[in-house]
Amino acid sequence: MSEQVTGRSDMWSNSFIFVLAAAGSAVGLGNIWKFPYIAGENGGGAFVLVYLICIAIIGIPVMVSEIMLGKLGRASPIQALLNLTRTHNRSTRWSIVGYMGVLTGFLILSFYAVVAGWVCYYILRLFTGEFTGADASTVGEAFGGFLADPMQVLMWFSIFMVVTIFFVARGVTRGLELCVRFSMPAVFVLLLILIGYGVHAGGFVESVAFLFTPDFSKLTPQAILIALGHAFFTLSLGMGAIMAYGAYVPQSVSVGTTTFTIAILDTVLALLAGIAIFAIVFAYGLAPDAGPGLLFETVPVAFGNLPGGALFGGLFFLLVALAALTSAISISEPAIAYMTERSKLSRAQVALIIGGVCWILGVGSVLSFNVWADVKLAFFEWTFFDSLDKITQLVLLPLGGLLIALIVGHVLPKQVVYQELGLLQERAQNAWSIVVGFITPIAVFLVFIIEVIREVFTHL
Questions:
Q1: Rounded to an integer, what distance in angstroms lies between the CA atom of residue 221 and that of residue 201?
Q2: Confidence band for 267, pLDDT divided at 50, 70 and 90
Q3: Is 10 exposed, middle or buried (0-12, 13-18, 19+ CB in 10 A)?
Q4: 329 and 20 in contact (C-beta within 8 Å)?
Q5: Which long-range contacts (CB under 8 A, 24 or more apart) does 376-380 make?
């Protein structure tokens, strides 16, 4: 006899809170830290165009699928997939996608929290007025000096992990809802202030041209996969976080409408962050391909030369840290939820265990910028930090998204999917089946294979 899907007593307070929570999961360092620097490294406009296409034809369908699986399964990603496959007499081996998501989220959190620690450190530096009147060279040297000190980096990474564990231990609704109510609107407001400063400084026009004028000569196969991987990373897809949040969605919430709202919020914030940061980059003659330090070498310059910059700069980094916190909580939720379901330990005890193991793994990323800077993965020449970043973004996230699309497009009964998504017309049903069943998985698979071949041949 098939096993029935279990219910949950813990739900989001309302649909608006779920949108904020899911947007808080999606809106984080991926938008404000990572998107600007990878856009800079990969040529700007052409990369942004590919990224937007990936969001539209791959990111949104996979997000719809993840939320729906969580909502139907009403459990952690692993248990939700077990519930659904048993209920509909499908192979329980598909639950491996849940295990992959838990592993991927765990790996991402270990290095994501390190970068979030950098943000926390910069809150202090901006509030104390350290960069008042500083030029780009001074700010760049200060960032380099910080990364070279392993104890400093370790301390701020540890502080961020402790805060994350605290909120995770309180539970999704009590912990996360406390964070998202005010932080997301405030981040948007401060980004608009930063764009206004870019206009005043004189780099706004160049920034818009760089981000929205495609130059396809700069677009490489690797850039295409990076754009695809970042579409998964920034929307928190393929790591079980959105599926875990879907388990707490009230039955009355529309999955499709909610997904579009989240994707639009996430994409708009990423583009605003890019415009703001590159306006400062060009106004001060900085290099747009500065890499992971871009946020930490541009924003302090801007606020250091802005009236009241110490206050607004510190507040900006504080809100970036809050955005990072909401994402970190969501990334950790799949592992927390599963261990809580499967063990007799309390949620707080599980949070401490998972947080502790994640902290140990994160030490490797901390040392990648100083003591272990010359320690590289033999074949690919990646540091420990680079290895986690690239393996999750280039392999695990796309693979997870591919398998999720296959589950929704080919494994679950189509009528169950159509009913949950409210697809009543045959035309809408056919369009959904084509996109999720064929276009999305084929696109992910082709780009994935191309990049694997490129990486192998590049390092032979």
A1: 35
A2: confident
A3: exposed
A4: no
A5: 379/459, 380/455, 380/459
Helix (H) or strand (E) holding 280: helix 255-283
How far apart (Å, rounded) are the C-alpha atoms in residues 287 and 198?
Answer: 16
**Residue in this structure with the two tokens 């400062």, named with its chain if needed:** 280
Most confident of the ranges 235-239, 325-329, 409-413, 419-423: 409-413
Query: Residue 155 and residue 394: Cα distance in Å, rounded?
Result: 29
Closest CA to 278 of 28, 64, 73, 40: 40
Confidence of residue 2 (pLDDT cuts 50, 70, 90): very low
∠ Cα 213 216 219 (to 5°): 115
The sign one gets for the Cα dihedral 63, 32, 43, 109 is: negative
- What does pTM read for this prediction? 0.84
Tokens of 224: 């295409």
Q: Which of 241, 239, 308 is nearest to 97 (CA)?
A: 239
C-beta atoms surrounding 385 within 10 Å: 22
**Contacts of 336-344 spanning 24+ positions with Cβ under 8 A:** 336/168, 337/75, 337/76, 337/77, 337/244, 337/247, 338/76, 338/77, 338/78, 338/79, 338/98, 338/102, 340/76, 341/75, 341/76, 341/79
Domains of the chain and any CATH numbers: 15-458 (1.10.4160)
Q: What is the pLDDT of residues 143-188, one digit of tens each?
A: 999 999 999 999 999 999 999 999 888 876 676 677 777 777 777 7
The letter for the amino acid at 147 is L
